[in-house]
Every structure is written in C-alpha cells, then in structure tokens.
Amino acid sequence: MEITKKILICGSGIAGPTCAYWLHKYGYSTVIVERAKALRDGGQNVDIKGAGQHVIEMMALSEQIEAKNTQECGQKYLDAAGKVIAVLPKGALGTLTNEFEILRGDFAQVLFESTKDHCEYRFGRFVTALEEKEDGISVTFDNGETEDFELVICAEGMNSSTRDMVMAAHTSFRYLGAYMAFFKIPRREEDDRWAYSVNGVGGTFITLRPGNEEETTVLITFLRRDHAITGDTPTMRKALLRRALEGRGSIADRINADLDTVDDFYFGPMSQVRASAWSKGRFVLLGDAAFCPTPFTGKGTALALVAAYVLAGEISRNADHSQAFAAYERLVRPYVEAAQKQLTPRRIRMMHPKSGAGIGLTHLAQRLVASQAVQRQFRPSAEKRAREVADDFVFVDYA
Ligand SMILES: Cc1cc2nc3c(=O)[nH]c(=O)nc-3n(C[C@H](O)[C@H](O)[C@H](O)COP(=O)(O)OP(=O)(O)OC[C@H]3O[C@@H](n4cnc5c(N)ncnc54)[C@H](O)[C@@H]3O)c2cc1C
C-alpha cells in the first residue's frame, strides 16, 4: 500500500477543513469527502471564543473572519409585547455577543478557501464501508470505489453515519430536555445590529440575530420531555414549532408568519454527543461527531478548532497512530468535558421558565445583570478577557 501520509477526512464542516489545514503544514496529503453536493453554507451566528480565537490567529485567518463579522452590537431582552427590559452591549457581563461573531456558513467558506488548493475536496461522496489492514485502512465510497489511506478522521458532525459504522457501541447522546430550531427569515427595516431575546410562556425561548443584508437569523428552543417525535416529517416539525410559538408575543407571531417560506430549516433535539473512546484502530472522531456540546454552550466551534489543531499536531509528532490518538484524547477531553458540563437538563429548565411568574422572575434577573451596579462590579475588563482567552487551553507548539 502506498499510503504513507495520506489521510481521509469525512466532513467539510468546521473541524474537517481545520484539521486538513494543519496536516498540510506537517506534510500530509488529505482528501475531504462531504456528503452534501456542495459546501454547506447554512447555519447561524457562531462564536469563536476562548482558545478557538488563538487557533484562527495561528492560521492567520483573523482578518478574513473580521471582514465577515456580523457587527452585532450586543443583546437586548424583550418582554412578550416587544418592550426592552434589559440591554447587554458587546463586552458586558452575560451578553451573547462575542468578539468574533460570524455566520457559520461564512466561516465554513473561509476555511474552504484557505484549504482548497492543497486538500482534495470530493462533494456528494460518503463512506459505505471500512476495512482496517495492518498498514492502513481500506475505504469504500458510495460510488463503489475503494481507496487506501493511512488514517481516517471522522468529522461528520453530530449525526455521523461513519461513526456509527465503526464506533456505535462507544457513542451515546445526552438529551437535555429541549428541542431547538434554527433558520433564517427575511430581514425587516426594524432589524438593526442587535440580538433580541424573549422568553415565552410554556418554556419557549427565542433569539433573533443580525444575519446578512437580506436575512435575520432565528434560534428557538423549547422544553419537551420526549426526545423523539412520532412520524417525524418536515411538516410535523413545523407544526410542532408553530405550537411552541403560539401566543408567545409579537416576535413569535412574526416568525410564525414567515415559517412557510423557510426551506433551510434545522429542527431537532438538543443533545450532547458523549463518546467513551474517540478512536478505534486507524479511525478517529473529531468535532461534533465526538463531543457535540450543543449550540447553547456557544463553544462547539471553538472546541472543534482546538481539537483539530491538537489532532493534526499529535499525528505529526507520533510515528505510531495509537499514541497520537491517545495523546489527542488526553489533551482535549478535559477541555471538552468542562464545556459539556456547563449544560444540564436543570440549567436548561431554568433558562426556559414556563409560568408567567417564572418569566417575571427571569425578567428581574435579566434587569439585575444588566444594571449599572452589577456591570460596574463584575464586568470583565479587556485585560481579564484576554487572560481568559490565554488560560482557556494550554497549547503545544507542534511546529
Ligand atoms: C448546516 C449546518 C448548520 C449549523 N448551524 C449551527 C448554528 O447555527 N449554531 C451552532 O452553534 N452550530 C451550528 N452547526 C454546528 C456547528 O457547525 C458545529 O457545532 C461546530 O462548528 C463543529 O463543527 P464540525 O465540523 O464538527 O461539524 P459540522 O459543522 O456539523 O460539519 C459536519 C460536516 O460533515 C458532513 N457530513 C455529515 N455526514 C457525512 C457523511 N456521512 N459523509 C461525509 N460528510 C458528512 C456535514 O454535511 C457537514 O458538512 C451547524 C452545522 C451544520 C452542518
């Protein structure tokens, strides 16, 4: 087999191309197979925070990312009638808005542009079988072709099918007790560069955020005990979402009115991926496929960036792939688990008050956090924020 330094990466989301970028630096050739027919440019505002910022700085991508910044000014909490009850500008304690705010699709595009000249992308392709051999791994694709690689990196996101072929027994999902939907609606004149969040009765939480010139992004989460829907179809999902929006105030009414025109519609249970092991033989998991923390942590993208950097670095400095994978997991797992632990079903319930009284208390807490007294006392200084970024993860220099 002539496969030394030839690596297959499954999934051209965030983690896959980042890993390809670093592997190329260390002299590897990479092939990325992506199930979708073209680069998936969907998705909403993602934060690149903490150590993730350091990875994009090392990749010299800060400028390209800054050029696509959604320019979100901060977050405002509203009541059901649309009245502002709390204002948390960018940089404030408790705000949603971070330094690097970018639409996920724009970020995926930046990563694609920075890797496409030295990584072979194959769109509309996926793995149907894998066979591990003594010196490599033989992979069969959906077109029937078979090819040999030294290693396979699976970065297919939360619902990875290749992971399930190889490591189903090692993977479980932790349902957090809520469903989430994200999609885009047409931008209106009144939409400015602020994020707007509103709690609705019954445990519905809605956030609108600035997208591009034509669109506003929507994230809706709502409590639901069951994590499966009987007869799950796109029509049923929208019907379920409509029910969660009914009588939840003016923003919910606006979304409901636009819902029929939405095609790129994500809807599913808010679940974390927990894998008891991240590799088996020459096969290794990366990004959401290994450790999806859910969008509510705001850390999925940062974790994917850090993990991709470490995995590529450990592959490059260990002649034995099992040692490389063990070092990768040892370095990244504690970082990932700390992010996952931030969210528990209890915390999710607290963020989604159901009764009018519960919402009243939540409004009080939102006002308190936004108050000058609290902000003056606890708002992190620019130096403290920089220190937090530096302390978030201790990087090994693989160069
Ligand atoms: C379309 C889309 C929209 C998203 N929107 C948001 C958002 O709004 N907010 C948020 O916080 N997070 C969002 N995410 C998740 C976010 O991108 C991840 O949490 C994080 O960035 C980690 O990235 P990842 O590369 O591990 O996974 P992902 O970004 O999910 O990328 C996985 C890639 O693998 C591909 N893939 C799946 N199965 C196969 C297969 N069998 N073979 C080959 N390729 C396969 C997928 O099409 C996708 O391109 C979105 C993901 C996608 C795919």
TrEMBL record:
A single GO molecular function term of this UniProt record: FAD binding
FAD-binding domain residues: 6-316
InterPro entries: FAD-bd, FAD/NAD-bd_sf, FAD_aromatic-hydroxylase
PANTHER family recorded: MONOOXYGENASE, OXIDOREDUCTASE-RELATED
Protein name: 2-polyprenyl-6-methoxyphenol hydroxylase
